[in-house]
Amino acid sequence: MSNKEVKAALKSARDAIRNKEYKEALKHCKAVLKQEKNNYNAWVFIGLAAAELEQPDQAKGAYKKAIELEPNQLLAWQGLANLYEKPNQIDVKGDLADVYQKLLELYESGDKQKWCDVCNKLVELYHQEKKYLEVAETWQKLIRMKQEEGAEKAELHQLWKKMIQLLKDSTRNQDNKTGQLLLTAFEHALDSADTVPGEDHQNLYKDFIQCLSKFPHEVARLEKACHDMMALYPTMIYPLEVLCLHFVNAGTLSEKALHCFSRLSEMDASSGPGIIGFGIKCFKEKKYREAVESLTEGLQKTNQCPAAWHYLAEAQMKIHEHRNAVLSCNRALEALGTPEGPNLRWKNLALQLKAETLIKIADADAAEEAIKALEQIVDASSDPLVSALRGQAYLNKGLMDQASKISQELLLSHPDLAEAHALEGFIHYSQKNYEQAEKSFLNAIEKKAGTAEYHQYLGLTYWFMSDETRKDKGKALTQFLKAAKLDSYLGSAFCYLGNYYRDIAGDKSRARGCYKKAFELDETDEESGTAAVNLSVELGDMDTALSILNEVTGKARPGTAKWAWLHRGLYYLRTGQPSQAVADLQAALRADPKDSNCWESLGEAYLNRGSYSTALKSFRKASELNPGLVYSIYRAAALEQILGKYENAIATYQQILKKTENYVPALKG
Q1: What pLDDT does residue 473 have?
Q2: Global pTM value
Q3: Which of 166, 200, 297, 544 has its CA 20 to 30 Å from the CA of residue 135?
Q4: Three-state SS for 432?
Q5: Do residues 417 and 446 make contact, with C-beta atoms less than 8 angstroms apart?
Q6: Spatial distance between the Cα atoms of 199 and 327, rounded to a whole number of angstroms
Q7: Longest dimension (CA), the chain
């Protein structure tokens, strides 16, 4: 076949392809290849025809052969790209990306429009594969090309915005290089915006700041962006809120942070981050109740702030609201999710605080939960404080051997650690080894004198050690006073002071003051509430007694606060107010339906009210629950007599006299 015939055959092949006669085209091409096996155009045409005949492998082979012959010719590369772009081609995305890269190289010095088209396709391909770094680098090349061509500012602005859109999901991967390219895109988009200030520019700034807040190491850039946005948009609170939350999560309370909190509060008193900031300020100033109030309010508006939940848990811990503190720790852990980097520190802190709080609750279930929390702390095994907490949790769970083992190991490895000596003290105290407990707590106090709990336990050790140490003012009393001074929210310390002044010093007035304080700090402390009421009655101060009882019953849920209902019911009974007495004693029985004395008092109240049948039922119930209550049995007999049930009454009187021969009321009856 002559050169002229080869050209004619190729022309026939081209015409056949144009007419969609692909098999015919293949014949012509094969004829050419018999003569010229390295004919570039023949191989390209075979690729085209085979692709159309759904023979992808043959098409790919033909294109690759053509590329091998002429690596810098466009046709084969274009054909291969078209082949890989077909929907029936699978697992070719990597190959297609390589083809696009080669086409960019070939178009670069020539057809700029086609270069841009291929560039867009390559970016789309990388984006589908979530290869964000490649997306960013390729898109930047496109922008550079446009800049070299002298593109308008508005067009460049749209291109930077498109880059932001393409990379918006990349922050989840936290790839630093991609992150930097995304932040750069934001900065260029902001610089190239047409209307400044303006709504689009404002929204773009918000997105930029939100993006920056996801990069823990971009603190300076975040602060600068927030300040720049505040300068441009002085009435917008968004950048201030982000800045406040940044300071909260940083865990430091600098002058800068305080200024930020107060400025936000001035601009919008209802802003969640502003209220949270004020709560943290209160916490640092040791105003713990105000801190709890503000942090709770702020977190209702801005609840995805782990550091704020942690501060709230700490504040609740300080005022001994232990169960609430556990809930706040759980919310902190929920908000953290599966943390990395700086958030891992917050996770460890939240888990440790949760364990401490559960240990203060001091029951076996809470101890089990505390052990689970401690197990989740990263690098916990190397932290002696975590070990000491684990020892306390084992002790609360009744696992004395494990607690003792940890205590001995800690004393050997960390002899200067107060918590190690305190753990040893708690173990001795629980075993009533008071002399050893005294030594341990004195050692703990020597290492860490400012811990109220150590003084309280030393006081309790002296209280139970002997009559001498209990009465010695320099022993139990001194330690309880120190505990109360170091922690003014520690209700139990005031309760023990009340016990001392009532039982040892005989000072009812001072004892009543201590019990009242203890009860104000912890309204679930029935012992202190009851003692405050009883001493008020003994001191003839019924107003104080009633005010305490009214406050408790006013807040009580049905089936709770039995002691308060019972005390007030008995007061009404004594003062001739039987209807009120009935209502209160019924409320007391809802909390404890098996209290025979309460049933007896209720019977007395019904009797005084003239409700004889109901009184009879109450007295019978009391004697059923406690057959030794002779008075209830007698009252039941007397009521049967009043109600004309004489035979029953006689039988009941005889029943009493069998047990108590000389019981005069029964003999009279």
Answers
A1: 83
A2: 0.77
A3: 200
A4: coil
A5: no
A6: 41
A7: 149
